[in-house]
Amino acid sequence: MNSAELKRFTTINFLNFALGFLGLQFAWQMRIALSEPVTSSLGASPLLYSLIWLAGPFSGMVVQPIIGVLSDKTKSRFGRRRPYLLGGALITALALWAFPHSAGISDFISKVCHFNMPAWGGLLIAALLIWVIDACINIAQGPYRSLVPDVVPREQHAQANSYISLAIGLGSVIAMVVAPALKFFFNYQMSISAQFIMAGVAFALAMLWTCITIKEKSTVQDEITAKDDEKSQSFWQSMKEFFLLSPEVKKICTMQFFTWIGMMCLLIYVTPFVMHTVYNIPDVAANPVAQNLKDTAQNYALICLAVFNLVCFLVAIPIGKLADKFGNKKIHIVSMVSMIVAYLGLALCKSSPAAVLCLMGLSGIGWASVCALPFAMLSKYIKPGTEGSVMGIFNIFIAGPQVFVCTLVGWLINASVISSDGNINHHYEYTFYIGAACLLAAVIVTKMIKEGETA
User: Fold this and answer.
1) Cβ-Cβ contacts under 8 Å for 68 (sequence gap 6 or more)
2) What is the pLDDT of residue 201?
3) CATH of domain 3-448
4) Taking a C-beta distance cutoff of 8 angstroms, is the pair 367, 312 a contact?
5) DSSP 8-state secondary structure symbol assigned to residue 349
6) Which residues, other chains included, contact 326 with Cβ-Cβ below 8 Å and sequence gap of 6+?
């Protein structure tokens, strides 16, 4: 169906549409913020923690493109995208509940199956559950992005993606602030397992609301699935057509590649950076650390992520409106430069918790843009009926760079040892120097993009 035939979204429509992504980000942020404390308590070194993070990029490179193609072809009375949205959310919720209980699950398997799990059995279970969480979040996320060109008129795509950024920011803020708020106001330290359960419930309920309130247009579905019946495309055919959409698509993908190396330098390492560099807590896998000190540092890491995402929430809609007025490219460049400045400040001001908090807020401007404007740039080149395939392939340039961060950056940090009074620690601030350099490369590529109107 032509974009002109789609009804314009109202504010209520946008809010209903974005709520599911709020729940998705609630779950994703909990996995980002608290997976390191769980895995390090099970004996994971910084390098092993980074390698476990490979679950995310491999899931993104494999799962999202496949699910994208499948969702384009899905025939269901529930629509093309909604079965994947809801199914991914429900399985993720179960895995989030199980993840902090990995050691107990390992012991249970040993007792019930009469199979002696190795000493690192709990860590193995945790790694497998992270793979499940990441895979199922990707199952929901790809088709969710594809809903934008499916149901929103083209002239509102930037605005729709800005509401997604708003939901990302708000969901992350709520997820990060609950435990520190309970500690501050009621002197109650929420357990890690309770926070993961909270995230799973929020994801499932929010996604259910979006699936109920946003109706996929059956006429669009019928027209597209009819075309699919006539000519069924393989994944590789979809990949070939993706790069033939426009010369600008290659530039947008290159921009995403460098952007997401920079983004993952923050998202993967911000919690250990705050705990081990800002608060100078030694590596807990190698040194005994008082629980109250770990709780204090962990809560401050959550507050830093809350401020990061609060700024994303506050500027998401203004960024969309500014992009409509001045162009996606110009606003994205300004936002990315602000993040580069913040990264350099984080590396240089690592001993000041207050400075780190402010600089995390500045980073949130770039995060809001990253979550919206590259997708708005790409959406101009998407042909009807290929939305899921295009978004799935585009995700390769988000997930692929994470392999670099999880391996080479993880190895660098693991090798950069600080030894003091018999305690072992690592130079986590190095990740922000690398991130700043990659974001600068992304800005240079962005300047070369020619914003046109269609394909």
Assistant:
1) 142, 143, 146, 388, 389, 390, 391, 392, 393, 395
2) 95
3) 1.20.1250.20
4) yes
5) T
6) none
Contacts for 45 with CB less than 8 Å, ≥ 6 apart: 283, 285, 414
Q: Scan for tokens 């001045």, then name that residue.
A: 326
Q: How far apart are CA 279 and CA 428, in angstroms?
A: 12
The Cα 44–Cα 50 span in angstroms is 9
Each residue's pLDDT tens digit, 279-312: 988 876 556 666 778 888 888 998 999 999 889 8
- C-alpha–C-alpha distance, residues 308 and 361, integer Å: 4
Residue spans per domain, the chain: 3-448
- For the cut 50, the answer to whether the pLDDT of residue 424 exceeds it is yes
Give the tokens for residue 171. 């969901």
Q: Is the pTM here over 0.85, yes or no?
A: no
Minimal CA–CA distance to 278: which of 196, 350, 366? 350
pLDDT in tens, 349-391: 998 999 999 999 999 999 989 988 998 888 777 776 666 677 7
Question: What does the DSSP 8-state code read for residue 3?
Answer: G
Burial of 231 (0-12, 13-18, 19+ CB in 10 A): exposed
Non-local CB neighbours of 219 within 8 Å, separated by 6+ positions: 1
- Alpha-helix residue ranges (DSSP H) falling in 74-191: 82-98, 102-112, 121-151, 157-186
